[in-house]
Structure formats: C-alpha cells, structure tokens
Amino acid sequence: MNMETLWENSNQSYQGEFILLGVADRPRLEMLLFALVLVCYLMALLGNTTIIIVSRLDPGLRTPMYFFLSNLSLIDICFTTSLGPQILMNFWRKNKTISYGACVSELYISLAVGSTECILLMVMAYDRYAAICLPLHYTTTMSHSLCITMASVSWISGFSHSLIHTVMILRLPLCGRNQVDHLFCELPAFLKLACVDTSLNEVLVLAGSIVFLLVPVSLITVSYGYIATAVLRIRSAEGRKRAFNTCSSHLMVVWLFYGTSIFSYLLPRSTSSHDGVKLTSLFYAFVTTMLNPLIYTLRNKEVQKALQRLMKK
Hints:
The protein is mainly alpha-helical. Helix content is 77%, strand content 3%. It contains 11 helices and 3 strands, in the order αβααβαααβααααα. It has a 3-stranded mixed beta sheet with strand order 2-1-3.
C-alpha cells in the first residue's frame, strides 16, 4: 500500500484541521513560553548557522569532530524550524489550528531529525573516545570515508524510523477526533486521537525508544567512562581540569536531551502529567538545540580563533 492510498484511507475517518490545545487555558504561561521558545529558537538558528559556516570556510576545522558538529548543527536547525514557527504563531492566535497534512508533516520531520540526533550523538561520543583513548590510531580509525558512512547511517536510520511510525499513523482511523492535547503534533499525543486499538503502534514506539534512546545513551555513558579513565592519566592538573570540564559539559547536554526524550516517550502516561510532558517536549526541542552550539563548539578556542580569522577577512 503506497503513501497516497494511506493518506486517502486516513482522510476517510477525518477531514479538516486539528486543534492544538497546548496551554491555552493559562494565558500568562503561554506568553512566558512564547518568550522562552522565541529566544531559544533565534539563538539556536544563530549558533548552529555560525558553526556550519565557520566549519565550512576555515581549513583548520575540517576534522572529523567538526564534520559531525556541522551535521549536528544542521539537524538542530531542521528540528527547531520544523516546530518553532507553528508553536510561536499558536501562542498568539486564539484559533490554534493546524491542517491534517501540516500536522503529519510536522510529526514526520521532527521525529526524523530527533531520531537522527540520537544516533549522531552516539557517533560523536565514539569520535571523542577514539581521539582521547586511541590518539596514535585516530587518523586511521576516523577516516574520511568512515565519517561520511557514520553520518549517513545516522540520517538514514532516523528518517527510516520516522517513516515507519508515520505510515502506521496514517493507517489509524481518527473518527472525527481533532483535539491534540499538546503544543505540537508529537507521536504519543497523536496516538491518543485514534478510535481503534493502538497496541501495535505503542509496541513500535517502545522498540524505537529502546533503539534510539536507551541504547545510545548507554553507549555514550560507557564511552565517557573510558574517556574519564584516560583523562585521569594526564599528568598536568590544568589539563585534567580542562578535559573534565569539557566532558562534564558534553554529558550534561547529552543527558538533558536523552533524559527529557525518555520522559516524553517511555514513561507511562499515568505517571506523568500532561503539562509536564508538554514542557519537557519544549525543553528537548528548543533548550538543548540552543545549548548544543554553546557547549560543543562556540566555547572552543579553535572555533573562536577561526571566527576571528573570518571576521578579519
């Protein structure tokens, strides 16, 4: 069954717009969230665009680490842009609607780039492990072809994962239900609209969460455990302090992203409040994408020097 047939079948159950309930019953909170999302969105666009441009133009940053960071920046731009404009508009509008096609597109793109980021962060942790724990073999281990392969696998796996869920969503009859109890069209919230048993979809969500959330965060933690062991062997106290500060800040962002995603996708609905899930989703969609360029790249002296060279030119 092709995508067009699935679309037609799903539209037989409901044709029209969805209402995003969000936090419309609390105008003050809505305005506070508008300001937060706007600031995070603009800073994420500025920071991530800067990283892509500098990494592309400065020859000194054409290394595996900055290649992966450029990919991460592109993902974060796609992630925030797929959600930000719609959320910001709905904060101001009384009629908080979104078309069926736009809702499904939003769900597909945000889930695809979010899943891609989950795998890419794991790849980046391996890159740091190879650089710190295997420095003599780093050049041969992280060859250009391997870097491209690992980045491609991240993108392909993320978009394939999202495609599976989107196709399964399009098969569900909605029976006229059009109120999404969320700030945007997210998979768990969308599943609640179905008027049939969604056990198969929920099993796929659980399996996907294990593969794209629990497995990567576990491997990242193990990688940084090895990195911490290698850092302890550094004789210079200043070198150890600098390395630990870098690793701890990386882990903080990683745990914020995976932790909030796990809260949204893996915790039973009965144990998590609706408002908690909504705010948590905003956190991993906007706050972590704003922090990524600040923590991973813009604090680096190499990037700061590259920015200075480009500005002088």
